[in-house]
Every structure is written in C-alpha cells, then in structure tokens.
Structure prediction request, 391 residues.
Amino acid sequence: MFQSNEFSSKPGDRYARQLRRGFRRLRFEPEIETEYRRKLIETERVPASVCAAVGACVWLAFALVDLHRISILGLWGQFDAPVWLWFGLRWSVLVLLVAGAAIIRNGRGDYTRLSWTMYAAMGLAIAVTAVIVHSKGLFAADSAQIVVVMAAFLPLGLTFRRALAAALIVAIFSIVALLAFDTQHELEHRVQTVAMLLLAIPVAAMGGYLREHSQRRQFLLTAILDRQAHTDPLTGLANRRSLFAHAERMVHLAAKQGSAVAFAIIDVDHFKRFNDSYGHGAGDLALQQVANVLSADLRAPLDMAARLGGEEFCVLLCGPSPEAAQARFDHLLARIRSLAIPHAASPTGFLTLSIGAAALARHERFATLVTRADAALYRAKHEGRDRVRWA
Prediction:
C-alpha cells in the first residue's frame, strides 16, 4: 500500500484528505490513483481469470452447437465465406479466452489490456456471428449481445471508465450490425433489440459505478488504517513494529548483497525536565520537530526513521560506510542545534540529542545490532550527551 520512505508524512494524511474531498468522478489524486489501480489489478486477478474461464466454457458450448448447425446446413466441404467467417471468429475468440484466462491467472503485471481485448473480441464476434446465423435462417439469441454489454462491468480488472468505453464500443457495433446487415428480421424487432442494448448500458453502468465507488472508499479506509497501524500518531514516523519488520528485511538483504547497514538509537537529552519546564504540549511539538529533522535526512527507499517510544527515536541507514554514517549523524545533531529550541533545564540551554550507533557485523541479527547501539547510547549520555558514540 505504501513504500517504506513514506513514513515522513502524517499517518493517513493523503488518504484521509482524499476521503474528505470525495471522488464522485471516480478519480483520485495522481499518486493515490496509481496505487489504487495497482491494487485493483492485484485483487481482481483471480476474479478476472475466473470470468475469462467461465466465458471460455460458455463460448465452447456455443462453438460445439455451431458445428452441429453447420452440419445441418450441409456446408462442410463447401466454401461459404460468411460461414467460414462465423466459424473462424467463434474458435479464434475461444482460443483467446482460454489463453487469456491462463495468462491472467499465472502471469504478473498489468493484464487490463488483455481483459479489454478479450471482452471486445467476444462482443464484436457475437454481433457478427448473430447477423451471419440470422442470414442462414437459423436462430441466434439477440439477448446474448445484451448480456455481453452488461458483462463489461464484471470484475475484469477494468476501471469504470474503461469498462464503460468497452461496453459502448460493443453496443454501437452491435447496433450498426443489427440495423445495417440483419435483413431477416422486421425493423420493429431490430429497433426493440437496439432499445434493449441502449437500456442495458446505463443499468449495468450504474451497478459498475456503485461497485467501484465502494471499492475506492474501502481502499482509502484500508490505507488509513494500515498506515495508522504502522506509524506513530504523534510524529508520523514508523512505529516499533514497522521498524523491526523493515529492518529484518534490510538485514537479510544486506547479508545477501554484502552492503553496509548503520543503526542509531537517538534520545532527546533531559526531556523529562523539558516537559516539566514547558508542559507536555511543548514537549509534543519538540518531538515533532525532531521527527521532521530525522525524516528529512532519509534516502529512499531503504532508510527509515522510527519512534521507539517516549523521547527515543532511531534511524536505520542502508549503504553508507561508517564514515559516511558518522557524517550524517553529525548533521542530525547540527540540525537540531540550529533549531535552537529553548531548554532552560539543560546545561546547553537548548534542546540536544544523544546518539548511539552501530554498524551491522557479518551474520549479525538485528536484535543484536539494537543491543549494541543501545549500549553506545548509554556511553554518549555518560560522556556528556549531545554527541554520537559507536559500539
């Protein structure tokens, strides 16, 4: 739902803002829209493959009936262009549906173009074959075209707009085929069928609109809850649970690639005295300022800043050497000093940080890394605070 470097923002702010703003036109702001479409493709992959498979089964039944019909007409061994077009369309679409169901089910990535192509091919083939079947004096269910028009709004991985465009294309093609080429039925019958096709679009579209609106709302609510479960509500940084989950992955990745990892535990100096002097409201504001400084120095997508609890924070850096990490930690201390947050109960007269750092050793687990960084933090405090010490 979100990337690890997104913790610098307040929990759920983008999603909550979008939820308040609404989305009657079924569009989010660009970044959230991209996330939603990616999620839609993931969640509807199985339903889309099932729809394609069911469509293939139904299509196969019609294809077998077609073989019987062609035998009745006694057209085997003869070249009749419309019949061979009918036969070719039916079996070509069947192959497309079977292959498409397998690709969607087992493949990766965006399959929406394939879904759109399968749907359009099925709808256009039905319109053409219906005209050919009628011309041979055989029965063809006109209701099949109506069903296909409404099927555009099934869970195929398509957004409402794409589904509506597909339904309109199939409906317009079917209407043209009925009015221009179906000479076996009276005009009144064809007009009635056209009216049913036109009526099917708004009826199905309303259901499709409501379904996607509900999906989008649920997507935003889930995203808000997900971010709140992984972030600290005061600072917007990652919480302890999210930190450990992310760090375990990074340690595993570092072990495979042989890359460096630096971890630091950061404590706001004499923070209890700060709260006693200025009140908890001022303390919360100070913690938010510290969090902003920590998150501003992160390098996406692997670095992470987190709040461990109270006035204790941490930073995980992936890739830098100990020298480079030292420079970045020194920069953090300098940034906090430059804020010049008054702290009368501190020997320095303003808010400062103490940092205990450790570099990941070969085959070391993250829990051990945390223990070493915590010991280094204790040394930093014991030696006078407002400094970085390494394990």
Summary: The longest strand covers residues 261-268. The chain has a mean pLDDT of 91. Residues 4-228 form one domain.
